[in-house]
Amino acid sequence: MELKKLILCVDDEKIVLNSLKEQLMNQLPHNYKIDVAQSGMEALEIIEEYKEEGYDILLVISDYVMPGMQGDEFLAKVHQDYPESVKILLTGQANLEGISNIINQAGLFRYIQKPWEREDLVLATVEAIKSFEKDRTIEAQNKSLIERNEALEKWANAVVNTLSMTLDKRDTTTSGHSNRMADFAVAIARSIQKSNDPHFECNGFDENSIEALRIAALLHDVGKIGIKENILLKDARIHYDHLEAILNRFNLYRCDLKHQDYESLTKDEKMFLNQFEIWTTKLKEINIKGGLNVEDVNFIAMLSLLEISHINNSQEEFKIKKLITDDEAEALQVRFGNLTKAEREIMESHAKFTYDILSQIPWPKELGDVASIASSHHERLDGSGYYNHLEGKDIPCASRILAVLDVYEALTSKDRPYRSPQSPEKAIEILEQEGRNGKMDSKIIAILKELLLNEEV
User: Fold this and answer.
1) Does domain 171-229+346-453 have CATH number 3.40.630.30?
2) What pTM was estimated for this model as a whole?
3) For a surface tag, which of 72, 149, 260, 292 has the fewest beta carbons within 10 Å of its beta carbon?
């Protein structure tokens, strides 16, 4: 519905008012309401009444010299309450200095000398109306743009949060990891903002780059969408169903040996029977142990050398000629974590997948670095990281922040199946050693340590 629009004429001389109103009514379209007032106070009351009825105060034309409230004071008051309204001053006495003051205080659109020429008045009024309409159009467009930007921002945040939540749902062992990373990352970036350390001179953060860092933190593991669950969710060196098959193989072999003449058995076979309970128990322990020592590795190596003999080859389980195959031994001998070399290479490919996914998103210019920041969170200063093997200053400061936080999270998280959680203090000690070894940014580690000590994250 089109807004009702008011043109108000103010002059203490009734003849002038009637002439002014008549000229405007004859020249302007009939969709404008034209009213008059004989003083500033009366005009303000009329304006209030029309506002209550839903009118836009489009144009106010006022005389300069009036009793009670002068034209400059009146128009200044109108400007204060209705800055969008267009103001025209009619004057026969004001000097240039006075006019200048009114222009500044009342946002004057134009002043017209008395007595006015009808053509001048009509032309000024038409231009005033065009100015008002243009300003309202621009205002409406700006409002629409703001609303659209807010809607797009809301949509973008929803997409980012949904992707982050999807990762949490898929990889329950790291649930909440990305959100914690984002909170830590923003806190570190704001500390760098305040820092005078020349180390960060070329890596200053503004609000846009902090937002890019926050989004990169939330989505840094999005590439894990491309990793199969048997690797992504692996919580033991050998999957439990596979381990069960190995233990069944052990049991069947033991049963077969028990049916043999004990004295005819080889030394290894006798040792297998005597150590069966100890060996199977230790095998189960090694499969889920956080880190293996040399004794554990040597134990698996010994088992892998034991060959099966005196066995009925018609049994499906014993078409394998070893108690533990070479592939099984490799998996069980992983010193830290639970992934074999081949599995780790697949897992590490998630960084490249992260870049491939995020680089397809048409980010606005201020967020254009999200893909490179997120995909570089496993890079190391000495070039030993992945996937681009970047070194030193080639690694963005934002990515160095994520690298530190990713390790801190891995060390302290209570839900990692292959490792008991470290205390924050111990995790910082480990990170500081990584800093001394030239792998991670010691300055960022120091900021994280200070934030933890001050309980700011």
Assistant:
1) no
2) 0.66
3) 149
